[in-house]
Structures are given as C-alpha cells and as structure tokens.
Amino acid sequence: MGRVNGKTVIITGGARGMGAAFARRLVAEGAAVVVTDVLVEEGKAVAAELGERALFLPLDVTDENAWQGVVAAAEEQFGPVSGLVNNAGIVHVDPIERLAEADFRKVLDVNQIGVFLGMKAVLGSMRRAGGGSIVNISSIGGIIAFSNILGYVASKWAVRGMTKAAAQEFGADGIRVNSVHPGVVATEMTDTSERSHSMVGDQPLARAAAPEELANLVLFLISDEAGYCTGSEFVADGGYTTK
Q: Percent of the chain at pLDDT above 90?
C-alpha cells in the first residue's frame, strides 16, 4: 500500500479493460485517479466503485479543448497532475488495398494524436506538481508488425518514437515518459478475437495476460520506484517478440 500516495493520475480509456485495471491498482496504492473515456456509463461505474479518490470525466482524446478541461477539473478536485496514462486506443482491420483513408486517419487520430494532445495538456500541471510520469500504452505492434491493421501498427510505432522525443524534452522538468508494449491481454477487445487466441499458442508463456499484470507494470512506472526510467520501452508480451 502507498506506492503512489498523493499522486493525481489521469487515465484515458479507463472505462473497462486495461484502463479500468490501471485505475483500480493506482487507487489501491494511494493515488487519486481521473478516469476518462467516451463510454460514459461504464466510466461512471468504475469511478463509483473506486470511491472518493476517483472522478469520471468524458473525454474524446482527439479534442484539445476537452483535454484542457479534464486537466483543469483534475487540478480542482485533487491537485496538480503527476501522472498520465495514455491508454485509449482503437483498431481497424482491413488489408491495405481495401483500407479507406478515413478509417486509417481515425485510428491515427485516437492512437497517435490523442497521445500527443495528452502529453501537451498535462505538461503545465506536471510542472506545477514538481514533476511527474507519463505512460504511453503502445503495443508489440509498435515493436514488430502485423498484417491487416496498418493504422494500428503505424500509430503504435509512432507512440514509441513520440515517447522518446517527449522524454528528451520533459526531462529537465523532472517528467519521465515511457511506453508500455503489451502482447495479447484478455480484455473485451480481444476475448472474442480468433486471431488473438491463436497468437499466444506458441509464445513462451502460452496464455493471454490478465489486465492486472499490465496494471502492475503501469503502477511501477507511475511510482517513484521508476525514478531513473525515461524514454524506454517496457514489453509485457509473454515472450511473443522473442520468436
């Protein structure tokens, strides 16, 4: 208990899956969390479950003005923001020859532009907090590549690079920026996917991760225990990328 006492953390895509697991783990260790999502009712339910140290705010991560409102509300409720988990993401499945430009751009808007806007929005608040930690959720699709999800792969590689660039810019302010690269995680997005289940069969740990396992990694990166970690990739994939 208490590994992130006194920290205020914004989590995008926090209404379910990994984001909800992150919120639960951080609150359990002493943080106040602002759960954000476009899934309003599910997000409210997560915040209600977590009690007085949790607040839900609707957020479209592609809306810069909305980001500013979330940061202002977080400061008003809990104090300056000291943690951000850019977790919101989508995927669109199509071979390149059939991939519509609008669908490609939509994935980039959420997965890449949303991360950019989030990092930009919290910078001033983290300076007021005296430093902080940003965790950008990428994917093993940002380490290697997969067919038929070009926008997803492009965005997750971009998040990896943006993380390193931001780490260089923000370090002087005591703000760390790292990326997390999950393999298959058992969430609503993957449980019904035949492709996801087939992926884990021949990896060294032949199972999907539980969201709580990724939450443990995010907790470490938000906490001061990771005080010398910045600009790095943290891979949690059951060994998939060793193949």
A: 94
